[in-house]
Design goal:
The chain is of the alpha+beta class. The chain contains 20 helices and 22 strands. A five-stranded parallel beta sheet has the order 2-1-3-4-5, sandwiched between helices. A five-stranded antiparallel beta sheet has the order 7-6-10-9-8. A five-stranded antiparallel beta sheet has the order 12-11-15-14-13. Helix 5 runs antiparallel to helix 14, helix 14 packs antiparallel against helix 15 and helix 17 packs antiparallel against helix 19.
Length: about 650
């Protein structure tokens, strides 16, 4: 089995070792490594390389694309680029080297193996195509008929060796000549008439004269048909020298026909494609020797068999319909991909061409040319599978990048919220500390004890707040446990109001609540406490002095409580409402007294509410205040038991 040599070029020793290690696990691969473009050029001089995995940024004056352009000037080697960033200008430059693909760093072993395997599949297919082109040229030049191909303007674009030898023209001189240049002027009018008929029928058989380079006339019989060559519509001309036929009697004509048939069999013996001829009932009347190599049957074993018997049951109905259509008119043809049964009852896939031969020397029947494409079909299926895997890998990579972007934004916002939520309580602590430190003797003992008690309470509350923030960070990293339990909403709200009492007193804002002591929810205490604290703190922040904040609770029919925090503040514009719960948007706004924020508080609220199985939303109008709603599950005995 052929071994494929892959050259890895990267200025990072770590990347070279990683890629080489993965490729060593793949069968039939021989990896070579170069840590610079110069070393890569030296290795190519002494080794036959099938594929280059090239880093675009080599840290040199020339990048990887420049080195590939230098390599391609002497030898064409497929390339697979590695890169960190997708830069449009760089990618446009890379396209000039016709790369097989791109690998984004850091490269996962699975991505590297799938992409490399797909590239090798392309390389193998390219080798097969070049081999088939070589085989076609060999067969084309070995045919003794005079064969040439014209474009739709009757100019010769291809000719086999036989017509060049008979007419004594070098191949280079014949290609490009007009078909009329090979005919005496006396035949031009008849040729024009034939072309008119040909345009109607799509195929013609006629006799004419061809001129050698020395102007000698050779009578020929021409079979003219249309086809595709190199992706363009062309006219295929197959001419037979009929000098002997014109002067021979009927017996000699029959002998010549027999000899032509024998020659046809000799020719078909060396063709890799299968040639079959059937009668109008699809019974096989002729089979080329290639059928033994393709299906395992001898030509004699197939004679008189029904071609339909060889076709896969799933393909028979479609074939039968088209076979009936082709029999309606001479020259009718169609192409179809069919699975045929081998002698060992396996199935092989063939690309078949069918043509009605009724007007061809009274042969009659249907000619079938079958080219096996089993390996190609399998390769295409494998390629599609690899492409699918590659698309999935790219999708996963894109999703990972998006998650990383969100994680980075979340991290930045997290540090901001720490400063935001801890600033006020620390200001209070520092304020009391400064008063005690600077004016200790100015206070009575009871006043000092009162300050110390407030310091103690404030420190404890701040410590608990810090704990909550750290637990939220663990949630972002997937390391925070979720502990829902039976919680008294009234008690939870009471403690939160105590924490925010100082903030509300500074602005003479009155906080009231309709929450009673008989409301129990099934929630994570620390998460929902953070939600309520954020919403009340925001309400105070955006409410002018002497305003009010009202906290309400309602029961819903879906076993949920709906809590709301309503303020008489400045309200929120519609444009800002659409951005409130999006972490990538900066919606931080200063309060009525210039209070600053981070814009992350509501993001935390939404995450914690959703984690607890609820929803959060807001209703607001500028200058009329805002109401934030969120839902939590009611406590029920069966809920507690199920958890």
């Amino acid at each position: 089995m052929k071994q494929y040599t892959i050259l890895i070029v990267d200025n990072s020793e770590e990347t070279l070792l990683k890629v080489e290690s993965v490729l060593n696990k793949m069968p039939d691969l021989v990896p070579l490594c170069a840590d610079s473009g110069t070393k890569a050029l030296d290795l190519i001089k002494n080794h036959s390389v099938d594929l280059i995995i090239m880093d675009i940024d080599l840290g040199e004056d020339m990048d990887g694309i420049d080195y590939m352009m230098a390599i391609n000037r002497t030898v064409r080697i497929p390339v697979l680029y590695m890169t960190i960033l997708w830069e449009p200008k760089v990618m446009e430059k890379a396209k000039k080297t016709s790369p097989y693909g791109y690998l984004l760093k850091p490269i996962s072993p699975q991505q590297l193996m799938v992409t490399t395997d797909m590239c090798l599949t392309h390389i193998k297919l390219d080798h097969q195509i070049r081999q088939r082109e070589s085989d076609f040229t060999l067969v084309f030049d070995s045919i003794k008929e005079l064969i040439f191909i014209c474009d739709m303007h009757h100019r010769i674009v291809e000719a086999n060796a036989e017509i060049c030898n008979i007419l004594d023209y070098p191949y280079e001189e014949m290609v490009g000549m007009a078909y009329r240049d090979l005919m005496p002027k006396t035949s031009h009018k008849e040729f024009d008439r034939v072309m008119v008929e040909f345009e109607k029928s799509g195929s013609m058989q006629f006799e004419t004269l061809l001129l050698t380079k020395n102007k000698e006339e050779i009578p020929v019989e021409v079979n003219l048909s249309t086809g595709n060559y190199m992706g363009k519509k062309v006219k295929l001309c197959i001419a037979n020298n009929i000098c002997k036929r014109l002067v021979a009697d009927e017996v000699r004509v029959e002998g010549k026909i027999k000899k032509a048939k024998d020659r046809f069999r000799v020719l078909t013996r060396y063709l890799s494609d299968v040639i079959l001829i059937t009668d109008e009932l699809s019974k096989i009347t002729f089979a080329s020797d290639a059928v033994f190599r393709a299906l395992g049957n001898t030509p004699e074993e197939l004679l008189k068999l029904d071609f339909l018997q060889l076709i896969h049951p799933e393909d028979q109905e479609n074939f039968a319909i088209r076979f009936e259509k082709i029999k309606e008119k001479a020259g009718n043809k169609f192409e179809m991909i069919i699975r045929l049964k081998t002698k060992t009852n396996d199935w092989k896939t063939f690309e078949c061409n069918f043509r009605n031969l009724t007007n061809y020397d009274n042969i009659g029947g249907i000619a079938i040319g079958a080219h096996e494409i089993t390996e190609r079909i399998n390769a295409e299926e494998k390629l599609q599978e690899l492409v699918g895997q590659m698309e999935y890998t790219n999708f996963e990579l894109k999703r990972t990048v998006e998650e990383l972007d969100i994680a980075n934004v979340t991290k930045d916002k997290f540090f901001s919220i720490i400063a935001h939520d801890l600033k006020n309580p620390f200001n209070a602590i520092l304020g009391f500390c400064n008063l005690l430190y600077d004016d200790y003797d100015d206070f009575t003992e009871s006043m000092r004890i009162n300050m110390i008690e407030k310091l103690k309470v404030s420190s404890e509350k701040t410590y608990k707040l810090l704990e909550n923030l750290l637990e939220w960070s663990r949630l972002q990293r997937g390391k925070m446990e979720f502990y829902p339990e039976k919680i008294d909403i009234y008690s939870l709200l009471f403690h939160i109001n105590e924490q925010l009492e100082t903030q509300a007193e500074k602005k003479s804002i009155r906080i009231t609540s309709s929450v009673s002591t008989d409301k129990f929810a099934y929630i994570d205490k620390y998460m929902i406490a953070t939600v309520i604290r954020n919403l009340i703190s925001n309400a105070i922040k955006f409410t002018p002095k002497n305003g009010s904040v009202f906290i309400d609770i309602q029961e819903t029919k879906a076993d949920f409580y709906q809590l709301s925090v309503e303020d008489t503040g400045i309200g929120i514009s519609k444009e800002t409402l659409d951005l409130l719960f999006k972490i990538e948007s900066n919606t931080s706004t200063r309060g009525t007294e210039g209070e600053s924020g981070t814009g992350l508080g509501l993001i935390l609220c939404e995450e914690f509410v959703v984690k607890n199985g609820g929803e959060i939303w807001v209703e607001s109008q500028p200058n009329k205040g805002s109401t934030f709603f969120f839902t939590v599950k009611k406590w029920a005995n069966n809920i507690g038991q199920s958890h």
